[in-house]
Amino acid sequence: MGEAARYEGQVVAGPGGVMTDEVGVVTGDLTVVTEADGDAARVTVQYTGADEWYVLTGSPIPLKDRTVEQVHQAVLDAAETGHEGGVTADEVR
């Protein structure tokens, strides 16, 4: 596969926040990092400015016919919009 790709962006989580494996739902100002992981994209989030990173529930996300950058943007959009019970990888598959 091509060279590794990494994208980082900030978002204010919408209603319901973002669901993580480690701590459940996170809300507020978040930093999202999406990295290439073979034929998938691995997504981690943190409270902006914090040290701890958490895995988005359901990550890694299969790329299918998308780029890592497109998956990253889809995660940012979903996080900003929000989802009852917290955004997971299911909202961007």
Mean pLDDT over the full residue set: 95
- Binned strand content: 35-45%
Instruction: Give the total of beta strands.
Output: 7
Taken in chain order, the helices and strands follow as: EEEEEEEH
Show unreliable segments.
Answer: none
Helical proportion, percent range: 10-25%
User: Terminal Cα separation, in Å?
Assistant: 20 Å
Described by the principal axes of the CA atoms, the overall outline is globular
Which sheet architecture does the biggest sheet show? Answer: 5 strands, antiparallel
Number of DSSP helices? 1
**How large, in whole angstroms, is the Cα Rg?**
12 Å
Structural class: alpha+beta
Describe this structure in words.
The chain is of the alpha+beta class and 93 residues long. Helices cover 15% and strands 37% of the residues. The protein contains one helix and seven strands; from the N terminus they run E-E-E-E-E-E-E-H. The strands form two sheets. Strands 1, 4, 5, 6 and 7 form a five-stranded antiparallel sheet that branches. Strands 2-3 form a two-stranded antiparallel sheet. A hairpin with a 6-residue loop joins strand 5 (40-47) and strand 6 (54-55). The longest helix is centred in the C-terminal third of the chain and has 14 residues, at 68-81. The radius of gyration is 12 Å and the shape is globular. The chain starts with 5 loop residues before the first strand and ends in a 12-residue tail after the last helix.
